[in-house]
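Below is a complete specimen:
___
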Amino acid sequence: MSEIVLRVDNLFVNYGVARAVEGVSFELGSDEIRALIGANGAGKTTILKAILGLVSAAQGSIESPAGRPIQGKKPYEIARECAMGYSPEDRGLLMRMTVQENLEMGIYCRRHRLAGRLPTLLRDIYDLFPQLAARRHQLASILSGGEQRMLSIARALIGQPRVLILDEPTLGLAPVIVEETIRAIQRIGQAGRGLLLAEQNVMVATRTASVIYVMERGRIVYQGSPQDLLGNDQIRTAYLSGTALLPTAEAG
């Protein structure tokens, strides 16, 4: 049985007087992928930011491995002490740094543990993302959109997180790059860590995650396996028929 590496219980998050997340609860095991899906504004990114300490929870609890509470910790403390990695929707890259310099920054919060392992960690990342190996000395700013997304995921992964959080990892990517990203996520999910996705693309979620949470207006309105979700005509019609849930494309 897998260890629980993340537990969210009855989470509420407000933006001013507006409630963005209402009563959300879920768990994530050490060897599984789970996905939050829903249209823009459903509350997916807000949940991720609350887990990472980037926004404050109004109510509820968030626990990391060994049941340690996360609330009140700074984002860098969560990254360091709770071993969490994050690839944000906007990729969050250091555009004036090279690919390898961005990757080296990925271990910054845990450098006291990982600095001596950097050559091995880089080798493993370049094995997972060969395109990054070929561009290791190029600036992040000149990479394609797909390569920037790969670099963002790789930078979150190189710090050896127990929980890897990916926000819209395929948004705006060409179909061929989406396929490459799906394969990378599947490989990452086999490495004994918990992986939490926020996705609009239902196809990506159903091909990678074992449990899917459908969100609308800050609430989880359905949860189940990919097979159950795709076989539920009522849920698909009510919550997954909008164009925001279909893949979009840009040059890879």
About this structure: The beta strands are 4-15, 18-29, 33-37, 59-63, 84-87, 163-167, 194-199, 211-216, 219-224. The chain has two domains: 1-83+166-245, 90-160. The two ends are 39 Å apart (CA to CA).
